[in-house]
Amino acid sequence: MNVKTVLILLGLALATIFALVCVLLTRGRAPSTCQHLPPEQEATEDGQSLVFADLTPEEMVQVVRYLQGKLGVQLVDASRAKPSDNCIASVDLQVPAKAEVLRFLDGGGARPPREALAVLYFGNQPDPNVTEYVVGPLPTPAYHRDVTVQKYGGKVPYHRRPVTGKEHVDINALIQRELKKAPLFLTACCESDGTNLAILSTAPRGFKSGDRSTWFVLFHNTAGTGYYLSPVGLEVLVEHRDLQVSHWRLHKVFYNGRYFASTGDLEQEFVAGTLEVVRLKQTQTDAVLGSMRPRSPPGSPGPLHFEPQGPRYRVRGNCITFQGWSIAFGVNPNSGPRLFDIRYHGERIVYELSLQEALALYGSNCPGGMSTRYLDGSFGIGRFAYELVRGLDCPYTATYVDRHYMAESDTPKTNQNSLCIFEHDSALPLRRHFSDSQSFYYGGLRKNTLIIRTISTLINYDYIWDFMFHGSGAVEVCVHATGYISTSFLHGQGTGYGNRVGPHTLGTMHLHHIHYKVDLDVDGQLNSLELQDMEYELIKDPWSLQNTIERPHLRRERLEREDEAAFPLNAPMPRYLSFASPNPNKWGHPRSYRIQIISFAGKHLPTSSSMERSVSWGRYQLAVTRRREEEPTSTSIYNQNDPWTPTVAFADFINNETITNEDLVAWISVGFLHVPHAEDVPNTVTVGNSVGFFLRPYNYFDEDPSMDSPDSVYFSSEQDAGACGANPLACLPPTAACAPRLPPFHFGGFLNL
């Protein structure tokens, strides 16, 4: 080896060593870029939000033990209780009165006692009824009081109680016994003996108060697929009002456009050859309309949401803080998500923001479809919010929270990971400007939003409930609908009520109407309702009097009474409608928050309908009322099974009280008409099926509060935009090495079914 070769090799070795040192030095600096930073500290009082916290499983257990020991009656576990038994139907938080809470939060008063609301079904007594007790104080109950008469003006009749799982089991057993009376028909129509048919309940249950008579629709049930798309044309009407299960009976049968007195009569007509039968075959799983099994192999992964230095929000118990926002969150097992004490930079904007009800009203030429008006709160919007799938229902790195409930059982249930919290980059500027005149610069801010989400599966439909908090001080509420459509068997003039989506399947038209309660406290509790809209005024041109000009003019109005503030559904509404404080901002305008509704609702049920009062909240896209403690919700779980004499009728809330400088509540309805079509198979997609509303600051601040965001970007033509010191966006490339350590995928959502 000559000297030249040695020098070359030595030079290569030195270059290699230098490169390795550079790599090691770079890697050594990486942790300072990628280290998780603690979320910003918020000026909130530790533990105050717990006044709104959902009950813990331990508290629920204590309430059950207390009631079992103090009521002096035998209580059967609701999971196996017959209608003729007494049982504890549910236990939930009793939210304290607002005045008590505000004295505690704002006035240094005592913390309100922590209490539970227990709903009991008393079937084993001379006067069966539903009774509600407030039980407290928690965690060690020492008292209970009956609040039923105080809340509803009297005892709740027993027939209004929601149908329990045990009642459905007993009804299904009755239907199976009746199906055995038509074996030849079932073999011919459905290739079935009845045991492999799915049975779907409708509601309400009759035509007048006291009825408990329900149509059930039968479907081919293929494992792993949505049976909702495979009706067999058979529907049965079951009378189940009697407290003795043995007295229940099948009252009517419907098949392919005809009605029969019993399954025996149906069988006789089939045997006699006088019944037109549509012969359906059980199809393989992959060929079923409702199959969601992938048809293509997995592709390359899509974009991944992650925080290079960890979450910028903080979750402590039931309180979330994020860039000036603080929110107390929870879930009611019946009505679903509820938020309290929403503040921005320490100022309360909303005292309560809660879902109230979700109505699904169907049309069809089959009895089950045409009579269906689901009030989902009666089934359990919050109770049926199951575990979220990491990386699909929410970002993989979102924060997932367990929710606990007690319903139809003496044992608390947990829906683990059923609520998620995450910061979302919408890939859209919140604001921006590129200046190309006078001076050259760019300024902007990414639209990053904090999202609180839960998803309810209510039989066939899945509702995605989003609550979003923006850097501009705006709150956005949105519901996205997906899941399976509900269908009827296609016969006769069925396409007058929807579209054909399968060989014998009619996608039935229906509407989704959703109701929310928004208790805004804009710069204090006392607010007024202010409207603004535009008019054109024709004036002579001031500088050319022979000409005229149409000049837009701002019309302002302050409403005085509740009747004026009830805006009918689908009627024109003022474009600017705000809750206004008596206090002005820097520029002399009332500090206000604007309500902006995004909805394309169907038509409300005619007021002539015997059940319309039970959903009378749907008359209005917006109604503003004076807040009253005795009007906490716009509906009741008891309205579903007795809509003809509703336990709570929202229309009664509107009685022309004054709404000037009062504590006001906005009741907001959003929704859409859905005419199912071929692309709804197998599932309805969320695209175009989202509605909601905004709460937007309107002269509440003196300027856009997002100017204080640490995420703001500004650089001029005189700066080096590629320098990290001048432009935060130039600091992003090093964070590309900060790939998150993702936790292993796990899903336990099937455990509680």
Automatic annotation (TrEMBL):
Keyword Oxidoreductase in annotation: yes
Family (UniProt): Belongs to the copper/topaquinone oxidase family.
SUPFAM superfamilies named among the record's database cross-references: Amine oxidase catalytic domain, Amine oxidase N-terminal region
GO molecular-function terms, A-Z: copper ion binding; primary methylamine oxidase activity; quinone binding
Residue ranges constituting the Copper amine oxidase N2-terminal domain according to the UniProt record: 69-143
PTM: Topaquinone (TPQ) is generated by copper-dependent autoxidation of a specific tyrosyl residue.
Pfam families referenced in this protein's UniProt entry, alphabetically: Cu_amine_oxid, Cu_amine_oxidN2, Cu_amine_oxidN3
Active-site residues from the entry: 376 (proton acceptor), 461 (schiff-base intermediate with substrate)
Cofactor binding note: Contains 1 topaquinone per subunit.
Enzyme Commission (EC) number: 1.4.3.-
InterPro entries per UniProt: Cu_Am_ox_TPQ-bd (IPR049948), Cu_amine_oxidase (IPR000269), Cu_amine_oxidase_C (IPR015798), Cu_amine_oxidase_C_sf (IPR036460), Cu_amine_oxidase_N-reg (IPR016182), Cu_amine_oxidase_N2 (IPR015800), Cu_amine_oxidase_N3 (IPR015802)
Needed cofactors: Cu cation
All residue ranges annotated as the Copper amine oxidase catalytic domain in the record: 306-707
Lineage per the UniProt record: Eukaryota, Metazoa, Chordata, Craniata, Vertebrata
Metal-binding is among the record's keywords: yes
Gene, per the UniProt record: Aoc3_1
Protein name, as recorded: Amine oxidase
Disordered, as annotated region: 289-308
Start and end residues of each Copper amine oxidase N3-terminal domain: 161-258
Modified residues (2',4',5'-topaquinone): 461
Keywords tagged on the record: Copper, Metal-binding, Oxidoreductase, TPQ
GO annotation, biological process: amine metabolic process
Any GO CC annotation of this UniProt entry: plasma membrane
